[in-house]
Amino acid sequence: MKAMFSKKTLIKLIRSNMVPLLFFVICLGGVVASKLSFLYIVNEIVNRLDRNLFLVLSLIIPVVAGMGLNFALVIGAMAGQIGLIAIKVWNIGGILGLFLAMLISVPFALVFGYATGILLNKTKGKEMITSLILGFFAMGLYQLVFLLFVGTIIPIKNPEIVLPGGIGLKNAIDLSLIQYALDNLLSINIVGVRIPVASFILIGLLCLFTKFILKTKIGQDFRAVGQDMHVAEVAGIDVDRTRLVAITISTLLAAWGQIIFLQNIGTLQTYSSHEQVGMFAVAAILVGGASVTKATISNAIIGTILFHTLFIVSPNAGKNLFGDPQIGEFFRSFVAYGVIALSLALHAIQKNFDANIRAESAE
Amino acid sequence: MGENKNTYIIELREIEKEYYGNKVLKGVSLAVKPGEIHALVGENGAGKSTLMNIIFGMPVIFSTGGFTGEILFEGRPVEIKSPKDAMELGIGMVHQEFMLLPGFTITENIKLNREILKDNVASRIFGPKLKTLDVAAMRKDAKKALNELGMNVDEWLPVAGLPVGYMQFVEIAREIDKKNVKLLIFDEPTAVLAESEAEKLLDAMKMLAAKGIGILFITHRLNEVLAVADNITVLRDGEKVGSMRKEEASVEKMAQMMVGRKIERVEKSKGRVEKSSEVILSIRNLYVDMPGEEVKGVNLDVYKGEILGIGGLAGQGKIGIANGIMGLYRAKGEVYKNGKKIELNNPRKAMENGLAFVSEDRRGVNLMLDESIELNIAIGAMQVKGMFLKPLLGLNWIKLLDERKVRENALKYIKELDIRCTGPTQKTRQLSGGNQQKVCIAKALVLEPDILFVSEPTRGIDIGAKKLVLDLLVKLNVEKGMTIVMTSSELGELRSICDRIAIVYDGKIEGILSPQDSDTDFGLMMAGEYKSHSKEEAL
């Protein structure tokens, strides 16, 4: 009897963590097949966590507030890039430049986030697809501004970043003036693994902030609105405003996340750095076991580790298995989009499964 | 006079409300004193819920043009424009469908949007929204409210796993935790409760009334009314048809008042086939998981050539039966047609087996509103039976729409059913409700079903068109011998055309009545008290 029970709980445990477990197995296979050294992989994972975790964490609050996965992270990332372009123009580097970029991105992120929120409030129930398409639309506007307005309306003359014709920003902007500004501020080496302590402190602070805000009145409102807008409204909570706040916070965090990401990379791909931000962050948190209705900090951390492990090992695994690194490359994007589709499908299967159980136990 | 007025907590005067030209409240007045339990009884659609929504300032009232009449709260005229206004006045509401968040604990639900907060560094700088919740204090309050109701449940449990009865008490605890509550509205609080739970709830109500809180109790369980109410008001079709003190009331009297209406019977012509005793459809142990209309074990036989009515109050599961058989909601159980088992959860199989369904959701399920009448009529048969298709250049595996046949078919039905339209290509969105319903029926008829399920065929249709739709159903039954299973909230309509009427209560068939049976029987059955009541009488 007792054995039966524990078996049942085990099955339940596996079923509820199906996605992370599945990816853990794939990662394990990939690590073995890639024949990379363990130290190399760990170093890379630490590096990727440093780069991406902030962005992934910024997804949590909108999920709690019932707005699904915020693909409009892209728009926040653009705000961050505006900050970076500004410090490049003024040529302010180092940690000072980094924080200045963060500061400059704040008003942009707040305005963008607020506008996104207004739109999402008009499309309740379809937030994910709206934010995805909104991201694409914003890319168009972004290109308009930085390809056409720079040099004409916006007076930027710096030949290092402006195209030879004097109009529009170059495709790639060197950010070496702030590269590793945060990562090298305080960094230690443990058995060959370089750990950027300052960056992780910042990420830790974000985790604390997320935890803290969910314990406050506004956090309680997020959770109430996320569970049932109607009930929240009848209880007197201003649903629209609460959702606005949630998406604005997320957008702001995405802006800062993108700045941290790019200080690690060291080059701003003016027209494409932001492109995949939403997609990759969403994929990572989904791999970590989050769903469109539930996301936690541990989902974000586990997901980022698993998703990026797969990214690290797949080119080598592809080369070793098929004799062609290109297949590994292909496998990467296959993984990114496949993950989203798979975990959404698993989520639906889970729901269907639960409904079946309910129908079965109708008596 | 002035003093007298002040003794009422709330007084409603001549309340009238219209929804899209449909008058649902026609000058209702009532008043509640402190410590009084005032019961409001009536069928669905009698206007009870609308009245409550008006008192509680629900947004649905104002988004549909407001209401006329006067509300006095403690003798003063008030305007209640939102639930917040109502709460500030001291009106609490225990909702019929739980207003609880399943993922929150009992405490969090009781304190929803009234959380006890404490300052922290961030809130001092950035404002009160960042104050932290004082969970300990909240739990203490919640515990107190629960204790007051005699509830012995841990206040930190999540609501999701609680038995329904407990959820109802959590709702009440939330209301009494509001310090200034003077009037409590209970909107069918016992509808989802088991008997013992319901008794506990009634005790709690009495206890609250004894504290001087006025209670407005909406229900259709008539014995409960007798058990607790001081005064009773009966509504029917938006009108107050009676009010009495408890001493004057009896279950029969209330049942009759609730249902009583003139019934016009659409007489069937003599040429119709006598009702056979051949069972065409037999339903065994049917469970349907349709939210709000759950079916919990229905056994029912449908005889060939009859019109069977399925009636009952909203939320009892009558709508779920047809939806379950047709595969639109998840169902479990057995359905046999002419002895052959029909696969459930598969709408296509149901249609292939000669069943057709005109859903209660005319605009959502039945029609493609932006498509033409002709396509709407043809689409079902096209999909299920492969009608109206022709092969492309003799290739059988590429089928094209046979527009000529679609048109001919549409013209035939437009004439036959007298669909008023500009032509077969008119979009169905532009049709009136009655004509839309005819298109739906035509669509079902093209399938040439043996059994036609019709749900709420006259909902949202004006009176003239209602009769036409009902006449059409009778005509189909008489002339084509079609078996019809009609589900409707309007008892009068069921009694006007059906041969037998099954009344659903709590997801099961409470009983089957003939249309000529008394109002009292119908009333008792719909209130789920037929069996117990007749037993009592037998004793």
CATH architectural label of the largest domain in chain B: 3-Layer(aba) Sandwich
Q: Name the strands of the widest sheet of chain B in spatial order.
A: 6-9-10-3-11-12
Going across the major beta sheet of chain A, what is the strand order? 1-4
CATH class category label of the largest domain in chain B = Alpha Beta
What number is the mean pLDDT of chain B? Answer: 83
Task: Give the strand content of chain A.
Answer: under 5%
InterPro entries (chain A): ABC_transp_permease
Main location (chain A): membrane
Transmembrane segments (chain A): 21-41, 53-77, 89-112, 132-154, 194-214, 244-265, 277-293, 300-318, 330-349
Membrane topology (chain A): Multi-pass membrane protein
Describe the structure.
The complex is a heterodimer of chains A (363) and B (539). By secondary structure, chain A is mostly helical. Chain A is built from 14 helices and four strands. In chain A, the strands form two sheets. A two-stranded antiparallel sheet of chain A has the order 1-4. A two-stranded antiparallel ribbon of chain A has the order 2-3. The two termini of chain A are 23 Å apart. Chain B folds into two domains: 2-90 and 180-259, Rossmann fold; 279-538, Rossmann fold. Chain B is 37% helix and 25% strand. In chain B, strand 23 and strand 24 (508-513) form a beta hairpin. In chain B, helix 11 (251-259) packs across helix 20 (519-526) and helix 15 (373-385) packs across helix 16 (403-417). Chain B is globular and about 80 Å long. Chain B starts with a helix and ends with a helix. Mean pLDDT of chain B is 83; it is low at 1-5, 269-273 and 535-539. Chain B: It is an enzyme of class 3 (hydrolase).
Summed up:
Chain A has 363 residues and is mostly helical. Chain A is built from 14 helices and 4 strands.
